[in-house]
């Protein structure tokens, strides 16, 4: 593992990385820079962190650079770091899942190996978060992905190496957004439906939370086809038809789309006639 890790940006992700690297041990020097005066003052007092003046200074000293700035700031800050001199095979990674390794091209042009180490973790602004058990998507050159894997293990996570072309990374980020953000949308919609059935706002959230936590627990232990329950698992077309009739049309569109995907999970367990009936129902026939 690289001995000197430079963190550029100490927002939610950067702060979590700095905290993990210093608290988990391993004898690594952590260098850092942030635009924020308040954060700079805070981390100056944190044992194990050496705060430097400017990202260029971090780039000069670090064996591995980790950019934890906003997507919009990546190219500008990478350009500043590139002025610090040749990379000589050192590694630079950023944590933005939607941005390709090439956003760090100012660094690759001066000899840095570049890549992405994106935490698959929902982090609320200013929330203290650890990376224990978290997966990270790794993109970039072979050397960058190897170094990223070592860094992720040092943070307590697990690296998942992925194909590096732009389409693959867009699909990866879409999958992450579909699961994380889509789940928030489904939770909000289910809460609304519970309220429309007469539940108080607090009661609706309790109902949705109870079901969500049990379902995610099942998914953490079981394959999706085994974790699936409910009328579609049992092939109950009449019950699903009653659901569609009760929901507002725009919500029913989402219900149909998700149910079509779920139908593929049970296609080998139900009789062909039930599958055909469900497919026709979901297609609006």
Automatic annotation (TrEMBL):
Residues 4-111 form the Putative oxidoreductase/dehydrogenase Rossmann-like domain. InterPro entries: 6-PGluconate_DH-like_C_sf, DUF2520, NAD(P)-bd_dom_sf, OxRdtase/DH_put_Rossmann_dom, TM1727-like_C_sf. Residues 136-261 form the DUF2520 domain. It holds the Pfam family Rossmann-like. This is Rossmann-like domain protein.
